[in-house]
């Protein structure tokens, strides 16, 4: 079927690129315009704090599609171009410079941006953030130079950069206000295991105090903590979370509440507009609530789902949140959705630091989330437990002799 419809995608990141691909895969043969404010064609960000930062992968490996793919698929890729407004009445987006592009269907895939610190000295040279390819290129030079690197924030990005810093022989300190690194994502028990992992690799992990200022004349030389310490720094990396890029949606009068609100088909209340990836707060049929996920798999899968829906082949999006991380020789996958306050017990199976191990987060005896460490083959069983919210006996779950596929069979 030939159509004259135009689909505009705002945000040429992973979700946007996957949406364009899904539209073509689903047979949409109208016009697709993919607009992004970065100069690079869509690429994946996880390597920026892992193999690319470690010098083990080139940037070529990170692109979502080959350069030729866009012409082959007749996708108009407008790079270095910012969408400044969405005019819903006339169904047009406005680009910086004033050009307008009409749409029949619009996808907002604007992602998120690093939360910036506003403490005194925050704009000194040598204070870095990590989101874009150019940031990672700069940071790689900083880490290879060695010296004292202070990382503000013990989240995923902070810890992965800490591991890269140690790889290059830098002296690394992590400053984290919570009781442990990864506290918000994994809670105290497993956060403690990550603190120990990084200390074993020579990282000075300081928890329970935040950063109140950066010192230096033009260039950062020290980090002042809320407990009054001053930590010498040749460079600082700030990784204190991200803020979804919702400004366009808000200005267009769409519903926004910590993310662009969409239903389980990733559609906003405006039937011509969808949202996917980091920016979308989507109704999740498994959790009976809206969930916004800032991870790679969500951008891939929601982008694909939104593209299919816009091509008329949608189905409710019900995939379980998932993420992965690599630090030193630890590789993990996490399935589910809990956070620090959502569980009442943690079960560890196996011995952290000695081969594969697992963690499960439970509430009232039911598994809500699970993590497999250094055992990729177990991912399906862990995911199945987290999805089923199975009622389990903690002792069986902790016992490596009981297959994960059997732990929900109560004796
Ligand atoms: C260093 C790093 C490491 C990561 N590691 C992992 C990991 O190990 N595992 C994991 O699961 N996740 C990881 N993530 C998270 C993952 O990369 C993100 O969830 C994913 O990139 C989100 O994709 P997205 O397409 O929704 O948004 P983005 O990747 O943010 O892309 C959105 C794009 O839209 C552009 N844009 C925004 N507004 C406009 C506008 N008005 N006009 C034009 N363009 C616009 C942005 O500049 C950006 O290019 C990591 C992220 C980073 C930064």
In short:
This protein is of the alpha/beta class and 411 residues long. The protein has helices at 14-25, 67-72, 133-144, 156-167, 183-200, 247-251, 296-310, 379-388, 394-398; strands at residues 6-10, 31-35, 75-78, 83-87, 92-95, 100-102, 105-108, 112-114, 127-128, 148-152, 171-176, 204-207, 211-215, 222-225, 230-232, 235-238, 242-244, 260-262, 273-275, 280-284, 289-291, 322-327, 330-336, 345-349, 357-363, 366-373.
Notes on the structure:
This protein is of the alpha/beta class and 411 residues long. The protein folds into three domains: 6-113 and 243-310, FAD/NAD(P)-binding domain; 127-240, FAD/NAD(P)-binding domain (3-Layer(bba) Sandwich); 329-398, FAD/NAD-linked reductase, C-terminal dimerisation domain (Enolase-like, domain 1, 2-Layer Sandwich), CATH 3.30.390.30. The chain contains nine helices and 26 strands. The strands form seven sheets. The chain has a five-stranded parallel sheet. A hairpin with a 2-residue loop joins strand 22 and strand 23 (330-336).
């Amino acid at each position: 079927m030939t159509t004259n419809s135009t689909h505009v995608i705002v945000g040429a990141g992973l979700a946007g690129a996957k949406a364009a691909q899904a539209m073509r895969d689903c047979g949409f043969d109208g016009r697709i315009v993919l607009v992004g404010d970065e100069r690079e064609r869509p690429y994946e960000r996880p390597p920026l704090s892992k193999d690319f930062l470690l010098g083990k992968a080139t940037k070529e490996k990170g692109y979502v599609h080959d350069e030729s793919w866009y012409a082959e698929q007749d996708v108009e890729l407008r790079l270095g171009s910012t969408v400044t407004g969405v005019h819903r009445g006339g169904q047009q987006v406005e680009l910086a410079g004033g050009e307008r592009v009409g749409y029949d269907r619009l996808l907002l895939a604007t992602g998120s941006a690093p939360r910036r610190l506003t403490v005194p000295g925050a704009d000194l040279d040598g204070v870095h953030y990590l989101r874009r390819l150019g940031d990672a290129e700069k940071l790689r030079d900083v880490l290879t130079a060695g010296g004292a690197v202070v990382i503000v924030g013990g989240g995923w990005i902070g810890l992965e950069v800490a591991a890269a810093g140690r790889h290059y022989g830098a002296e690394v300190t992590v400053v984290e206000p919570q009781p442990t690194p990864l506290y918000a994502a994994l809670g105290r028990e497993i956060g403690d295991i990550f603190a120990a992992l990084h200390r074993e690799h020579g990282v000075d992990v300081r928890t329970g105090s935040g950063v109140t200022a950066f010192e230096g004349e033009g260039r950062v030389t020290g980090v002042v903590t809320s407990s009054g310490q001053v930590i010498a720094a040749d460079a600082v990396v700030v990784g204190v979370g991200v803020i979804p890029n919702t400004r366009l949606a808000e200005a267009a009068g769409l519903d926004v509440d910590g993310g662009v609100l969409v239903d389980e088909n990733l559609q906003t209340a405006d039937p011509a507009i969808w949202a996917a990836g980091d920016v979308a707060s989507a109704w999740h049929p498994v959790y009976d609530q809206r969930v916004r996920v800032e991870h790679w798999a969500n951008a891939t899968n929601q982008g694909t789902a939104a593209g299919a829906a816009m091509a008329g082949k949608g189905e409710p999006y019900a995939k379980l949140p998932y993420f992965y991380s690599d630090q030193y020789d630890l590789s993990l996958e996490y399935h589910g959705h809990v956070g620090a306050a959502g569980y009442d017990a943690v079960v560890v199976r196996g011995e952290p630091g000695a081969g594969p191990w697992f963690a499960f987060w439970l509430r009232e005896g039911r598994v809500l989330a699970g993590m497999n460490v250094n055992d990729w083959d177990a991912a399906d069983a862990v995911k199945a437990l987290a999805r089923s919210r199975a009622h389990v006996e903690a002792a069986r779950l902790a016992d490596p002799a009981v297959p994960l596929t059997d732990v929900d069979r109560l004796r």
